[in-house]
What does this fold into?
Amino acid sequence: MEQTAATATTAPGAERKKPTCVLLIGMAGSGKTATMQRMHSHLHAEGKKPYIVNLDPAVTHLPYTPNIDIRDTVQYSEVMKQYKLGPNGAILTSLNLFTTKFDQVLSLLDKRADSVDYVLIDTPGQIEVFTWSASGTIITDTLAATYPTVVAFVVDTPRTANPATFMSNMLYACSILYRTRLPFVVLFNKSDVTSCEFAMEWMRDFEAFQAALHASTPEGADPPYMHSFVQSMSLVLDEFYSILTPVKFSAVTGLGARDVLDAFDTARKQYEDDYRPELERLMEERKKRDAAGKQQQVEQLMRDIALEEERGVPAAAAAKGKGKGKGKTQ
It folds into this structure.
């Protein structure tokens, strides 16, 4: 599964270094794999060490060599044959099977944590398979509970030139943000082909988006029913844009690669300041609930023992009977 062994050690008494985990998410064709390759080469050029995890079982070729590859554990084609599934069902099942071994992935990451700066995670092209599945949630929450984790949402900029398509991408981004609750960076990929300035303007200026939406309707024709929906959603998402970090980027030319790393560093700080305290609070609440539940069980057991003693059953026998689930009396 892993191609290199860990050799770094941590000095006694020093706080252990933790790499930044980046979940690369985006629709099919947005350029996630090309983005991964670009970030991999750029990090090496800057003297930083990436650690790459591939979670797409259906990909046939990767332009980079991942450290951990789901294809080494699960054979996508065999899953299709064995379970008689279609492409999406096989990807989901492969991801579910891989998640059962995700503790081993964490163990490998833990061994390498001191010697790498970023953990880059490439997700399946079928966006819903990862973001809305139980396995995707388990992987995301487990990583976020262990390492500073951010989400990088890759957008195909030329396709978003249409206001309706732009809104579709933003709705996806909104749903992923509120599902993961993690710091969020939007990479407007392919900005060398089509500049993303129009998209950034639409995110800043509601009226500019409205003007573009109306301009997309042929002169003299009635606006399609979708326009009213898109217009309403743009009002809803206006506040949502303020918490996004958009970055102009090109996986082909490397445009904005330095800005992407800066955005990741800013998102990591947001994780430390906002997400981590909330996570610790939730974990503490869970511990209290578990402790309260155990205390209730002990109190219930003591009441049952007292009741059995009143009926003439020795305390030891009553406790033994309760432990075996045979505490009933005739």
